[in-house]
Amino acid sequence: MSAPALVRDRRLDTLRGVFLVIMLIDHLGGYIAGLTYQPLGFASAAEGFIFLSGLMFGQIYSRYVDDPARLVARSRARAWLIYRYHAVMVLVIAALALLPFFDSLWYWALRPYSEAPLPTLAAMMILAHQPGYLDILPMYVVFVLLSPSVLLALHRGRQLQVVVGSVALWVLGQWVDPLRDLYKVWGIALHPGYFNLFGWQALWMAGLVLGYARLNGVEGGFARQRGVLWLALTCAFVLWLWRRQYVQPADWAIALLDKPDLGPLRLFNCMLLMLIGWRAMGLFRPEQCLPFFELLGRYSIQVFSFHAVLLYTLQHTTGTVREVGAGWFSLYTLALVLCLLIPVVVARRRQRQPNRRLLSTRLG
């Protein structure tokens, strides 16, 4: 049975591109980052990016649930693609660290073994060591490899089991971080990554379930009720007031906003914004987009990988420009945002080359 045709939703690519730009700006810091970091409450671009990636994976790969072998094969191919980009990032950063003017990369990316780079490099290649900016793609790989089982469970009518299982794992993640705790027990001096897999899988799973539902035309009526929308808007507004420090809740509530473990209030805020965004997206047609952001979102893996390498290699330049002044740093930030088109251009040219070779062969 052939997979059903699917028209690409350019709205989702646009949103993913927006999140990529925000992540770059937030990682650079500065005046613009003060406007883009968690502007709508206690939810950053990383949460939105993971949720949208899960949604698009569910919507695209659910076409193959009638052929489990094909589903698994395509998922593995996707995971392998993501891993290859991660490996390229690691190798590029390791190579640059050999150059005299990039010697600080030994500390920044390859710590704690600057005196023993090969073991650290090997640990990064097997995803055991995940320094800053190099921990999202490894998490992405894990989620992609696990997703075929989830999609097959959804196809067999086990939606409740999937949701309960994801919630249970998230609850466990409020006390347990699998890699971080394992490293502590075994005394392993490596960085397990910023994100708790048990906590952050909730965002991916939410997107995966919604993507499956979209493809099969089963979008819950609950989310479409006007009362639910108004309740979500009210709760999101209260959290926005808190984020902007217009209200000061009790100290105990702050712990519920933990980002690495995706604390309860943070997850709640994310879900509210997802619901509101979902309703707002209905105001636009699937083919509508913002071309610049849509291009970035369409080539999200390439753009994210380039952005991480950019942050590492320009860390000295970034610090120098920041000292010059806020105005110059804002222009510098916008220039780097435009540089995100570089991997898009390269990827599009690489896509055209096989087509040209095929055409030449046919003409020959």
Describe this structure in words.
By secondary structure, the chain is mainly alpha-helical. The protein has one domain. The chain is built from 18 helices and no strands. It is globular, with a radius of gyration of 21 Å.
- Please trace the helix and strand order, writing H or E for each element: HHHHHHHHHHHHHHHHHH
Low-pLDDT stretches: 358-364
The radius of gyration over CA amounts to 21 Å
Kindly report the average pLDDT value.
88
Q: In angstroms, what separates the terminal alpha carbons?
A: 35 Å
Provide the structure class. Answer: mainly alpha
State the helical fraction.
Answer: over 70%
Regarding quaternary structure, how should these chains be classified?
Answer: single chain
β-strand percent reads: under 5%
Give the strand tally. Answer: 0
What count of structural domains? 1
